[in-house]
Description:
- Helix 4 (59-92) packs parallel to helix 9 and helix 11 (186-215) runs antiparallel to helix 14 (247-283).
- 80% of the residues lie in helices and 0% in strands.
- It contains 15 helices and no strands.
- The radius of gyration is 24 Å and the shape is globular.
- The chain is an all-alpha fold.
Amino acid sequence: xxxxxxxxxxxxxxxxxxxxxxxxxxxxxxxxxxxxxxxxxxxxxxxxxxxxxxxxxxxxxxxxxxxxxxxxxxxxxxxxxxxxxxxxxxxxxxxxxxxxxxxxxxxxxxxxxxxxxxxxxxxxxxxxxxxxxxxxxxxxxxxxxxxxxxxxxxxxxxxxxxxxxxxxxxxxxxxxxxxxxxxxxxxxxxxxxxxxxxxxxxxxxxxxxxxxxxxxxxxxxxxxxxxxxxxxxxxxxxxxxxxxxxxxxxxxxxxxxxxxxxxxxxxxxxxxxxxxxxxxxxxxxxxxxxxxxxxxx
Length: 297
């Protein structure tokens, strides 16, 4: 039996198996993803467009939207720097404590976000380790914007690093070493060799990091203090509105969060499509020295 025949035997199932699996998958997506998402938008628009826009124009809602965007705008670039540095260090070098550093990168995945928030309260709260010193210098971290940013950074920093580490490990060091042999310095090697090779994984990690930063609830809820108009992000504002039985306003803000999630998903799909297209095109072109590297050296 030829290899092709073996492959067909292994990968071909009966039609009823394919239809059953497809039906189960579609039913799961419809029941647990599409219908809840449709319910959010339907409830948000139940009283019309004017009530929807009024809920978003309300000062506390606008403050929550701005704080969410500011938090993401600070947390994502910081995690971008950390993620690239950590991935470069773990993937390109061998050193004592490498396994421990890799474990630390995964720590926020295994720690509850509520616990992460409590960690910052323990450190920077009024009765925390640094609380008296912060109070003496009139510096507020917990129940203020800095605490929200710190908690968001903690829960989101693995996303970029975890996207880049396996990618950079799979690529190895051959191209970087070749660039150095040709006379490129460290920055030239990074900008003209490493960065083009990891750009799609980097973009994908940034998208995931941004989505988590905007939707984080547990850690932010602990350190924010739920101060209206000051420390409430969009998820916290939705909770307050829903607890006050302002369902239309709550679902209006929730629908904006869902819309941001859909935009993120669309960007992710475009990035994935372009990456696959680029990989397919690269497979048809014989490898050569990157033009940008030629100019750099």
